[in-house]
Amino acid sequence: MKYQIKQQDKFKFIEVGSGEPLVLLHGLFGALSNFRDLIDYFSTRFRVVVPMLPLFELDIFHTTVGGLAKFVHRFIDARGYNNVHLLGNSLGGHVGLVYILKHPEKIKTLTLTGSSGLFESGMGDSYPKRGNKDYIRKKTELTFYDPAMATDELVNEVFEITNNRIKVIKIISLAKSAIRNNLGQELTRIKQPTCLIWGKNDTITPPFVAEEFKKLIPNSELHLIDKCGHAPMMEVPEEFNVILDQFLSKHHQPVSTLA
C-alpha cells in the first residue's frame, strides 16, 4: 500500500490509523519500505507514525544521535502525542533510547530491534565506498540472513546515498556518534516495558548485544528469531508482528467504540 507523506512545519511523516501512537524510527539507511508490513498490520488498532529522520538535512554539528533525538522530541511535541509506543531499528533504536532517557513521561512502551547504543559492528568508516556497486551490494547483503533480501531497489537506494559526498560525510558522522554514545550506564533508568526483538544471525548488533540490553533494562523481555539478521521487521515480518502484537496487547488501551 502507498502511504501519503504528510508535512507539518519542517516535519515530514506518515500517519495511518487511529488510537495510541506507535512511532517508528528508521535506521541509517532506513526507508519507509522497511516498515511496510508493520504499518499494514498495526494501523487497524494504532495511530502508526513514521517520521522522516533528517539524517542528511541537519548541519554537521547536529548530525549526531543526540541531534536526532532532539528532532524526535520536537516532532512528538509538535504533534501532541502522548502514551507513545516507541519502536526503533538500528540507529533509530539508539535515537529512541536517548529520547526516552530525557523524556520518559511521553513514552508508554519501548521496542528495540537491532539497536545500537551498546555495541555495533557498523557500516561506519569503511562503508561508503563511492562508485563501487558490487561493494555496496555485499555490504547491504550483510544486513540480512538471506542475501536475496538485498534487492536491486534497496542496493540502488544505498548506492545513491553513498555516491553523494556530503551524505557520506554525514553517514560517517552519525556512525561515529553512535559508537561514542554508549548508554550502558544509563539504561537501568528506563522503567517502561521494553520488548527486544532480535535476529539470531544479526552480525551488526549481534545477539550478545540484545542479551546485554535485557540485563540492563529492568522491565524488558527478549525474543530471538532464528535465520534472521539486522532488520527482523523486513526479513521475517509475520513473526516480528506476532511478537510485537503480543507485547503491545499487554500495554495497549483499545479505542473505545460506541455500540
Automatic annotation (TrEMBL):
Gene Ontology molecular function terms on file: monoacylglycerol lipase activity
Q: Which UniProt keywords apply?
A: Hydrolase
Tell me the leader sequence span: none
For the biological process aspect of GO, one term held by this record is:
acylglycerol catabolic process
Q: Where is the AB hydrolase-1 domain?
A: 21-136, 181-235
For this protein, the record's InterPro entries field holds: AB_hydrolase_1, AB_hydrolase_fold, AB_hydrolase_sf
SUPFAM superfamilies per record: alpha/beta-Hydrolases (SSF53474)
Gene3D superfamilies given in the database record: alpha/beta hydrolase (3.40.50.1820)
Stored Pfam families: Abhydrolase_1
| GO CC annotations on file | membrane
Q: What is this protein called?
A: Alpha/beta hydrolase
Q: Which species is this record about? A: Segetibacter aerophilus
